[in-house]
Every structure is written in C-alpha cells, then in structure tokens.
Amino acid sequence: MSSVSEEKSPALPQVRNTLAQPILAAFLAGGVAGAVSRTVVSPLERLKILFQIQSVGREEYKLSVWKGLSKMWREEGWRGFMRGNGTNCIRIVPYSAVQFGSYNVYKKFAEPYPGGDLTPLTRLICGGFAGITSVSFTYPLDIVRTRLSIQTASFAALGPHSVKDVPGMWAIMASMYKNEGGIAALYRGIVPTVAGVAPYVGLNFMTYEAVRGFFTPEGDQHPSAIRKLAAGGISGAVAQTCTYPFDVLRRRFQINTMTGMGYQYKSMWDAVTMIVSQEGIRGMYKGIVPNLLKVAPSMASSWLSFELTRDFFVSLRTPDY
C-alpha cells in the first residue's frame, strides 16, 4: 500500500512546481484578476459604453452617473447592471491572462541581466506590447460585448427591447460574420483600439510599478492591502485619462454599421473630426466620469487579486523536490 502511495506522490510536487513558474503563475493570476475587477464595476462599465455611443442631440442617458444608473435599474433591474458582463468576463479572463503573462515574457527579454530592474521607459514598452498581444487575441469578444451592452438600452431610435428579443453572444458573432463582412467585421475598430490599448497598458504597468515601489519601499515584507489597492487605483486613473479618446473611437467604430445609431465613419481621422465638429472636444471624453469612477476600484481590485493569486501559485513551489 505504501509503495503505491510513494509511486504516485512525485506527481503532486511536479504539478505544484509547474504552477509556480513565474510566467504561468502570472498568466493564471491575470485571468482571476480580470474576472474579479470587471464584475466589481460592471454597472459603471455598461453605463460608460452607453454614454460613449450616444450621439449628439440625444438625452436618453444624460451625463449624470446617478441618473444613468437609476434609469438602467428602473428599466432593466439588476440584470441591466450585469448586461454584457458574462461576455465581458469570457473576454477579460483570457485578455487579462495573456496581458499579464506576455508582460512577464517581454520583461524577461528586456532585462539587462537575469532579475535586473527595468527602466520606466522599458516597462512602458513591454506593457505596450503586452496590450497589443492581449487585444489581438480577444477583440471579437469585445465587439460582441459592446453590442450586447446596448441591445436592451432604450435609445429612442432603437426603441426598447425586452431581454427575450436580445440574441446571445455566439448568435451576434455569427450574424456579424455572415452579414457584415466576415472576419473583418469581428475586428472592426481594432486600429483605434490598439492605438489606445498599447499606451494604456504600458502606462498602467509603468505607473503601478513606480507607485507600488513608493508606497511599499524595499524591505517592506508585508505591505498592506490598502497600499496595494491605492497603487492600482492611481495607475488605472492615470492610464485611462491619458488614453480615453481612443476608447471612445473604439466604441463608435464597433457600432458603426448598426442601424439607428447614426454613425458612418470612414476612418479614424474622419471620426475625430466629425465628433469634435458635432459634439465638441467633450465628445472625445463622453463617459469619462463613470469611467474614472470605475477605473480606480477596477484596477485596484485587479492588481490586488493578481498579486494575491500569483503569490499563492508561487508559494506552491517545492524547492527540495
């Protein structure tokens, strides 16, 4: 009996050591971090999208976070707060996992020597490449999530839709592929997305590691969760504010072919000029209030859950095996 147990026992340390590998641990922890952070701020994420795609002259969702959330709750209940979050989590888990995992890969290549510290510029560049990598893998899910988020919202031109009328994620994806141009339809708006994601992710990683180093100086073996949350919130707010206009462009292009929405942009420059001429500079920042309200708790919970999960997997290592 004991011999059988001894034969099986080596497998467990091998699995533990595999999970403890830095890149795999970062990949798994990134997936957990993405799901946690997006679920926490799902109502504000949806409200931001509704603000972004509302064209000039419409006031169904006014620039008031409280009124927008109240309208959403009144018309759709708690399901309205979570509309599109399932798709978002399906997207964000691999997106966040690839982002954190690839960032650690790029860092390895960029280190001046094994374990060497990176300059802020190098972190910015590595984060940018990580953002491009992650968005390239998961973009079709993002565009479907955007459409799910607005399907039940009562925009005047579209009219209210009941939940029963709304097709599911895969049905929307199949319809877009069939009726809107194949694979290209599933990647509509990816140019402004990449243009915004690369600097956003780069700024996020660069700012977080700088602020984290300030809040938790070297030698602090047990930094408080509050300090980690603060570092994550600050990094997210800085990155989002600097790159927000690209996010607006991404959303507008994702619904560019939807009837009743009134957008027919031919290029990024055409979109920018039309938005600024019709809606002013403020048009490039529509939805930034709920976005800033969500980004601090979102990134704070993302970084905290990432570090806790990563540290858990790293702790599984059995060095004597």
TrEMBL record:
One of its GO terms (molecular function) is metal ion binding. It is found in: Mitochondrion inner membrane. GO terms for cellular component: mitochondrial inner membrane. It is a multi-pass membrane protein. Transmembrane segments: none annotated. Solcar repeats lie at residues 21-109, 118-214, 223-312. Pfam families: Mito_carr. GO terms for biological process: transmembrane transport. PROSITE patterns: SOLCAR. InterPro entries: MCP, MCP_dom_sf, MCP_transmembrane. Belongs to the mitochondrial carrier (TC 2.A.29) family. This is Mitochondrial thiamine pyrophosphate carrier 1.
